[in-house]
Design brief:
By secondary structure, this protein is α/β, with parallel strands linked by helices. Helix content is 29%, strand content 24%. It is built from 10 helices and 17 strands. The strands form 5 sheets. It has a 7-stranded mixed sheet with strand order 9-8-7-10-11-17-14, with helices on both faces. A 4-stranded mixed sheet has the order 1-2-4-5, covered by helices on one side. Strands 3-6 form a two-stranded parallel ribbon. Helix 3 packs parallel to helix 7. It is globular and about 55 Å long. The model has no long low-confidence stretch (mean pLDDT 97). This is tRNA U34 carboxymethyltransferase. Catalyzes carboxymethyl transfer from carboxy-S-adenosyl-L-methionine (Cx-SAM) to 5-hydroxyuridine (ho5U) to form 5-carboxymethoxyuridine (cmo5U) at position 34 in tRNAs. Pfam families: Methyltransf_9 (PF08003). Homotetramer.
Length: 323
């Protein structure tokens, strides 16, 4: 079973201590009632992952762990085979003792687009909502964050995160909890909150923005990344049954409308800092994610459209502050 005791000890000593009033009961309930059918077998695989202590970790330029002298071919193959059991790997990439986990998304490209625009993370307490495998969490640690908390209910992502953590030398500066944002109380305790690739999956996007705001300290910063469409503050796409083959896409506003939504929820200093079309180089099938990817979701005759005829994925990054 995943042991959250270390995380409880960490937050017992800081301004997140009031979370302990409800969090242990929530996670105990999760362990009793909500486990995926394969979760116990995934845990057994995690236990087989060798306890290598890296001689060098680089979280500033990627998620990279190395060992001197170099591991043997057999040791690398052991790591590769174990990590392959946790496929599909969507967010990354990771470079672990010479094993290159080439994930579906080049999440490092998104990180490079946003990092010049955000407030420094040095010494900060950070929340990453919908964090996936935790790739960006480790990059936040690499920028000097004191504590990074990720939340994502997908249990495979939790196992991927714990596997990477183990290979990074059991780093305790980042912790992933199998929760959704709606399960968090209003903590008002994080210096920075990231929500990337989540908003368009929410039936009530403004409620999501309020939930994010209620996790921030006064003066705290929100980094919001989401699908958008071209247009002014009056433009919003409400797809039919699917958008780019995804069923659970509800609202895709223009970046200007998203700015209005943030202001409507009481955020100030709202800025649109980046817009980028998702390319076939940024999201694609790999050895580590072999099912359908972006190329299968676009009109084969016109990559400016999805297979359903909607505008192809365009993503924006907005930064806002809680007053």
């Amino acid at each position: 079973m995943i042991d959250f005791g270390n995380f409880y000890q960490v937050i017992a000593k800081n301004h997140l201590s009031h979370w302990l009033e409800c969090l242990p009961a929530q996670l105990n309930h999760w362990q009793r009632e909500s486990l995926h059918g394969q979760f116990s077998s995934w845990l057994k695989v995690l236990e087989k992952l060798p306890d290598f202590q890296p001689t060098h970790v680089d979280l500033k330029n990627g998620v990279i762990a190395t060992h001197e002298p170099d591991l043997s071919r057999g040791e690398k193959e052991c790591i590769r085979n174990i990590l392959k059991i946790f496929m599909p790997w969507r967010k990354g990439p990771f470079s672990l003792y010479g094993v290159e986990v080439d994930t579906e998304w080049r999440s490092d490209w998104k990180w490079d687009r946003l990092i010049p625009h955000i407030s420094p993370l040095e010494g900060k307490t950070v929340l990453d909502v919908g964090c996936g495998s935790g790739y960006h969490m480790w990059r936040m640690v690499g920028e000097g964050a004191q504590l990074v908390v990720g939340i994502d209910p997908t249990q495979l992502f939790l196992c991927q995160f714990e596997a990477v953590r183990k290979l990074l030398g059991n780093d305790q500066r980042a912790h992933l909890l199998p929760l959704g944002i709606e399960q968090l109380p209003d903590l008002n305790a994080f210096d920075t909150v990231f929500s990337m690739g989540v908003l368009y999956h929410r039936r009530s996007p403004l409620d999501h923005l309020w939930q994010l705001k209620n996790q921030l300290v006064s003066g705290g910063e929100l980094i919001l990344e989401s699908l958008v469409i071209e247009g002014d503050e009056h433009q919003c796409l409400i797809p039919g049954e699917r958008y780019a083959q995804m069923r659970n896409v509800y609202f895709i506003p223009s970046a200007e409308m998203l700015k209005v939504w943030l202001e409507k929820c009481g955020f100030v200093d709202v800025r649109i800092v980046d817009q980028a079309v998702t390319t076939l180089d940024e999201q694609r099938r790999t050895e580590w994610m072999k099912t359908e990817s972006l190329a299968d979701f676009l009109d084969p005759d016109d990559h400016n459209k999805t297979i359903e005829g909607y505008p192809a994925p365009l993503r924006a990054i907005l930064i806002a502050r809680k007053p």
